[in-house]
């Protein structure tokens, strides 16, 4: 008799629970949502709950972070020991903070370049002897330009190889992001050709055609290739590309093919394009199309 009463009580509880769940569904609240909300405040990090009818219910978004923390402003708790500890454990940001103050002083006191004067470029000043040597030896300038074109072809070959042969699109996507941005910026601000420019028909683009000064696609493409080499543990190739990229930069400054700022922004553009390509892969690239990054079939990153 006791067993029968226990079974009937259990059945009654099940009926009551189903009735309550049906009521929650009718009210638009997923089954078990009240328990999750009560035990896990800020349930946006959890997957959306699913009702008995199979309809996925919306999650509750957490409130925005307050501008004024409840514990008070951060600087109120700073001490001399805390500042010393920050300098000891975070020297790089602290050094950049000092440089910020230094260059604020430089910016507000540096003489502006007169309108009739050519742009001041420290890279041109440093490479003045090389510029004079190349101007006195046109054949040497042509040879170096041809070697630079070979390096550009190496970049292009590697980036296309990773996509067409290895099936890894990230370097190609990065290049596709970078070059149109370079074209937009190059059209937006067309800098004058540097004084003392030493052109060559063997330089890329071959044939003494016009080109964008800002920013350097030569440098950005080499950075994209080098980053991919490091990602796939081809460290020796990456170091070789970095060394060739440095020599390329010196040669471009010596031939007045780019301003220093063109080369510096080219490095940053390569990094930014690679990061954007990686984010694109995370969002769009399907896991079932990923392949091993090398012939050994290992499971390293395919980005």
TrEMBL record:
Give residue ranges for domain AtPDCT1/2 transmembrane.
120-278
Question: Which Pfam families does this UniProt record tie to the protein?
Answer: AtPDCT1_2
Molecular function GO terms recorded: diacylglycerol cholinephosphotransferase activity
TM regions (residue ranges): 94-113, 133-161, 173-193, 205-227
Q: Which InterPro entries match?
A: AtPDCT1_2_TM_dom (IPR056361), PDCT1/2-like (IPR055311)
Sorted alphabetically, which keywords does the UniProt record give?
Membrane, Transmembrane, Transmembrane helix
Q: Has the keyword Transmembrane helix been applied to this entry? A: yes
Q: Under which name does UniProt file this protein?
A: AtPDCT1/2 transmembrane domain-containing protein
Source organism of this protein record: Zingiber officinale
